Amino acid sequence: MAKLLQVDFDFQGPFGEEMTQAMTGLAESINQEPGVIWKIWTLSEKDQLGGGIYLFEDEATATAYLAMHTERLTQMGISNIRGVIFDINQPLSAINQAPLQ
Fold first, then answer.
1. Residues with Cβ < 8 Å from 60, sequence gap 6 or more?
2. Which molecular-function annotations from GO does this UniProt entry contain (predicted)?
3. Span 38-72, pLDDT tens digits
4. Res. 101: pLDDT tops 80
5. Which CATH number is associated with domain 3-95?
6. Distance CA 56, CA 59 (A)
7. Pair 2, 100: CB distance under 8 Å
8. Which residue in 24, 55, 80, 86 is deepest, having the highest Cβ count within 10 Å?
9. Can you tell me whether residue 9 is helix, strand or coil?
């Protein structure tokens, strides 16, 4: 069963086009991670936060990715990393056109 992973962390930038240029390689590599279906990149320059919402094939791949990503972010000097894996109510989400595939 698909799982949603929400990650956020303190992030001082880069933002905007500079972020896109700096993170394109990382974005492309995420597509190669086991179980990843999609990711939405999230950021708030005002609140100095970065993160993402991911859809994974199952809990095992979401859990493994969260552990690896937390370690990667920590090595990049990023702190206050929060990650939560959620179940999805598919019938209600379908009513609201959720991209669950």
1. 35
2. monooxygenase activity
3. 999 999 999 999 999 999 999 999 999 999 999 99
4. no
5. 3.30.70.100
6. 7
7. yes
8. 55
9. strand
Phi first, then psi, for residue 80 (nearest 5°) are: 55, 50
Total count of residues recorded for the chain: 101
- Whether omega before 14 lies within 30 degrees of 0, making that bond cis, reads yes
Domain boundaries, the chain: 3-95
The two structure tokens encoding residue 66: 């969260």
Burial 54-71 (b: 16+ CB within 10 A, else e): bbbeeeebbbebbeebbe
**Which pLDDT value is given to residue 99?**
85
Q: The tokens 């990503």 sit on which residue? A: 69
